[in-house]
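To: structure desk
From: M.T.
Subject: fold request, one chain
Message: Could you run this one when you get a chance? Sequence is below, nothing fancy, just the single chain.
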Amino acid sequence: MADTQQVEVDQKTERKVARLARQIGTFAKAHGGAEGQVAYIGERGARIVLVGEDGGWGDLVAPTYEIAEQAVAKSGITVHESFDGEFAAKVTTGPYEWKRMAGIQIGG
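Reply: Done. Structure tokens follow.
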């Protein structure tokens, strides 16, 4: 019985990794390529931040850090250790982001 449960867990993990890798690949294709960074966010898992070659950005949440690492590895994108200045400078922000950030600052 325990072996069956382990196989089910492994298959479920593999499906999650494959789904995230597909989503990363779709993002990369839409943005002329992509780079990413994985950040642990506590019990919720890990956040995969994606930055496209065109400056577009997005993120995905994986249930565990290990699943996030496997997904970015499977997708083949470049992964950064941190969201440092050089990597962050690739992000293009538009009017929506500036308005949203201003709204947060003034309580909106």
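Reply (cont.): The chain has four helices and four strands. Let me know if you need anything else for the meeting.
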